[in-house]
Amino acid sequence: MIGAWHIAGKENAISDGDAVLPGSLLEPVKGAGDHSITVLLPDGQRILCECFTFRDCERGFRVPPLYRTPTSTAVDLLMRVNAMSKRSKDSETAKQREDSAASHDEAVASIGADKTIEIAGLAADLSDGIYSYEAVSLSHPVEKRFGSKFEKHGRSVRLSIPSEGLFEIRISDRLNTPRIDLLLAALRRPRAARVFKSYKEVEELLKGWNEAYQGWPIHDFRRDYLRSVMLGIGPALRTSAPPSDESGVQFADVAREPRFRPEPGVFKTDTEVVLESDTAGATIHYTVDGSQPLDGAAVYRAPIIVKGTALTIKAFTSAEGMKDSPVVTGIFRIGD
Fold it and tell me: Which residues contact 57 (CB under 8 A, 6 or more apart)?
């Protein structure tokens, strides 16, 4: 998020990780320069809103509605990420990870009777050879750092772990160059199986979201999910119905927002999208590349064809003697 933002009708500025309900009207706080904000919705939509001049920012941006019912995994994931965003991440290990050039990975593993765990993931892609690892417990901060050298053979790595818990592990090569920063949830059976199952569901969900809408912070979300589960930081997201001024009510001096016909969603075949406004004599400006429609954006004159894949349409209405409408977003997908 760049610049200060608030929800129309509310004075408090939005912070990173705050819950914003679908249908809310986002407005940049005036006088703070360029603005951008990314909204992540539990049906997989990833919406970027940005503006660069006072006139463009003045329009505001309507958060699109959900076009499909979120799964319980999706809701739980975002609630846990929201809960973690409210806690400080300025720990020493987190700072080291941010400054590191090593690749990031996350894993859940079962502790064997010999107090070892077997991990795959990015570790499996390492060339065979001698490596070392250093680990610190996030579950038991008073525990000392530990680590050792190990020899990697085949498609997995086996490491010694002193106990159950959440660990930050750095794997380095024989030249002491950091290769992997791993967040590891180490558990004993049967809890390991339960956490592993839920974590795989989160992995698949994020993979699908990112394939549909590039740019989801996959590693950050997976880390927040494991931190929430392993550290007992439960979902804390609580929302109430938005007030009327966030739900589409328009003022007399503001042009009516464009409507999509049909409504955004997933379609089996190529689809023709019509843009409409209830403001007489209005002009609709739009883009189809995901960028924000600015003053010079194309003028809508004919239906837009969504063909073969997906299209993100952003639009606003302008009319003489009225303020421009907020920018609305519609994502149309062909197939699943």
Answer: 28, 30, 35, 51
DSSP annotation of 8 reads T
Hey, what domains does the chain have and what are their CATH numbers?
A: 92-231 (no CATH), 250-336 (2.60.40)
pTM for the model: 0.81
Q: Which residue has the tokens 């977003």?
A: 329
Tally helices (H) and strands (E) across the chain.
Answer: 5, 20
Structure tokens at 292: 């924000």
Distance CA(233)–CA(190), nearest Å, equals 21
The type of residue at 22 is P
What does residue 6 show for φ and ψ, rounded to 5 degrees? -145, 165
Chain segment 113-123, per-residue pLDDT in tens: 899 999 989 99
Q: State whether residue 315 is helix, strand or coil.
A: strand
Instruction: Find the helix or strand (DSSP H, E) in which 151 lies.
Output: strand 146-152
CA dihedral 69, 74, 80, 82 (to 10 degrees): -60
